[in-house]
Structures are given as C-alpha cells and as structure tokens.
C-alpha cells in the first residue's frame, strides 16, 4: 500500500511540474505576442505612412488618445468599405446609360418589315381533295360542309379567335389530324410583286406560321426562326437598308386578286398579336410614312452580363433560344404556358417542341382562357438594339377595277402598299457609364480618401505583417523544440536495466 501511495505522489508531482512549465511557457508566449503585435503594427504604419496605426500602438501617448485614434481608424475603414460596397452594387445593377445621339448625317437604317396575312387562304380544289382523301367524303355527302367549316375554322384561327376550333373537340375524327400540315396542304399560294428604291437588292419574302395564322414575312430576317429550322445568325439575310438623307427609302408591294392585313414591325422582330394592323382591301393603294426611333449599342456593352445591362443582343444564345428576339421570347412563353396547361402546343408555334394541339387541346386552352394569363406572366428582357416605327402619315386611295396586260388576267383587281422612312435626326445609344475599370478606381479613391492608403501601401503592409509573422512562427517552433528537449531531460528519465534482467541476456561469444 505504501508503495502505491509513493507512486501516486510521484505522478502528481510530475503532473504539477508539467502544468507549471506549460503555464510559464504560455505567459511568456502571450507576453511576447503582445509585444510583437505592437511592433508589427508600428512597422506596418511606418511602411505605409499611415499615422493612425502608429499612434494607436504608441505607448507614450495617453490611453484615451490611443483609443481615439483607434476609433477614427476603424470608422474610416468602415466608411471606405461601405462606399466600396455601394459602388460594387452600382456596377452589378446599373452600369449602363442611354444617351441621345444627334450626328445623323452618316446614319444607315433598316427599312421596316411587313407581315402580310391574307383573308382568303383556302384553295377549294385542294380542300376537296383533302376531305376526300382523309375522311372519304365528297361534295354530295351531308357531312361535306361540316368538314369544310372545320377547315375554314383552322385556317382562319389566331391566338385570339381559336374558339371555333374548340367546337370540334368532341368529334374523334379530328384527333389525329396534324393541323399545321393540313394548312400547308390546302393553302392557296399567293404572289406578290415587291419593288424598292434599290433595284439590285432582292427583298426577302417567306411564308411563316405566326400567331395570326399562315402569313408572309417581307424584309424580315428574324421570321426564319418561326419555321422551327436551325438558323445561324451570321448566315441570316440582311434587311434592306439605306443611308438617310441621300436617297428616298421605300418598299412597294403589289397584290393581285387578294386582300389581307398588314403588320409593320422591326426586321429583327416578328409579328405579334398586339401589333397595329393595317387592312388592305381590294383596289386599295396605301402609302405610309414611318418615323423611326433606333437604339444602338456600343461594343463595350458586350463585356457586361445580361443582368447588368438588362438587355440581350440578337446573336446571343440564351438557355432556350439560339437567336434572341423579344417577340419570339414572348411567343415561346405563351407556347410553354399552353404546354403546361394542356400538354400540347398550338400549331402557331412551330419552333417549340411538343405534341401539337388537337381540337380537344384547343378546348382545354379555351377553358384556361389562354393566352390572357400570359399577358401578366410572360416577361422577357428587351434587345440591346431596337428599332421602333411609328406611322406618321398615311395616304389611302381606291382606283377600282382595271385591266392588266401583264399576264395576270383581265379585269383583275389590284391593291398595293408602299412604306417609306422619314429620315431621323435623333437616335438612342446604350453605353457603359460605369465599367470594371471605373469600379477599381472607385475602390482606390475611397481607400485613399478615408484611410490614406494605396495599393502599394497595402502590399507593403501585407509584406511587413507576413514577414514578421513567419519569422515569429519559426522562432516559436525552435523554442518549442528546445523546451521539449529540456522537458525530456528533466522529467522523463531514461530506462534502466536491472540485474535480474541482465541474467537473461545471452552470453558473449569471444572471437580470437
């Protein structure tokens, strides 16, 4: 029992000695650390000529004065950081500006695009063949006019009057009909005569499916996106353009035995449901002049993100469009809403993937009051370059029926539409007013004004602090190793071999 008590006392004494050694070492370390922090702060203040740091750690000053300098230093740093954060927010949210450009003498502009939608689409002969081939019904059958009414309802349908298609939702004979393909098969092709001020330029005319049905897009390169085929922006044909002030810019379109409605819009947009419509009746001759307000963008604008500039360039690829247009984006949003509501896409949107709507699908859309909800839900950013046309003057006359000798037949009613531009003297320009370089300069200005330090001063301060910290760490490591050796020599005794253990050692072999 006495042996165990003696052993416990020895362990307690050793433990207490170890605790004392550790306590002494910690006191030495903290004392040295406090001194070194003051020295390093003094050196950093001297390296950067920042008097506030030197005064804060100067022991010859009164503690209240040192505290005052510390508060001033902390307040200055806080103010500089706050202003820097405000400048950062400005760079992220509103780094652009829209200014007015008045140097109009050398401007070139694009002529407006026109989307022409005819009133009468159906070719009677093709419609008869379609009804005969699909439903095996001839003109003598009772159901013939029922099917013909269905064809007229589909061909004349738009996003605002598709209710006539929904009437046929209960008839299963229309469930498997591809409505877009049916329109293509029974459509009556029309011919337009397009002329312009530039006789060497061929104005592009293409048939496209829009939200107002099957139409013809004239001088509208962006309309190629509506066909659902892969389109590369760099390979798209350019619209007709002219230099303002040097020539009269116009396009003229002559129609034969046909009437329709006209939508004038930007060449880089497509016809939308909310567009202004100009009716063109038989023997009408309309001449319209348009004012143009163009918004151009500087090259520096591409360096910013879409969230910063709040607009998208036409050739930029978004997550769902290879070529961007605000009207195409809104049309796609309406199509996606229809797909989510009724699991089908109306035939107006050939560029959106999904099952095509049957008459039952249109009845479902009618129950959801589509696309009224899209007016509040669909939001798309504007394009960075915009062209807005406003009708300034319009002259309409009617000449009645006259004879033509150009092979189109006699007693043929002719209508025409001519649109031209009034040379603008003002346009808008999107430009970067607060770039990344300005952001860096604002950071430096705030730090220099409130703290009195520059980039070189910060580098010198970091160098002084890092150099002293690394040197002290190496000193501390050497001290720990030295104290470790002393501790092992003083408190940890080397192992001893007893006489009893030596008796078990093997005998030495002597070699002569």
Automatic annotation (TrEMBL):
The portions of this protein that span the membrane are 67-84, 439-459
Q: Name one GO molecular function term.
A: ligand-gated sodium channel activity
Coiled coil, from the record: none
Point out the signal peptide segment. Answer: none
Q: Taxonomically, which superkingdom? A: Eukaryota
Alphabetical UniProt keywords: Ion channel, Ion transport, Membrane, Sodium, Sodium channel, Sodium transport, Transmembrane, Transmembrane helix, Transport
Q: Does the keyword Membrane apply?
A: yes
Q: Which InterPro entries match?
A: ENaC
| A single Gene Ontology CC term | plasma membrane
Q: How does it sit in the membrane?
A: Multi-pass membrane protein
**Where's it found, cell-wise?**
Membrane
Give the protein family.
Answer: Belongs to the amiloride-sensitive sodium channel (TC 1.A.6) family.
Name of the protein in its database record: Sodium channel protein Nach
**Originating gene:** LOC115634640
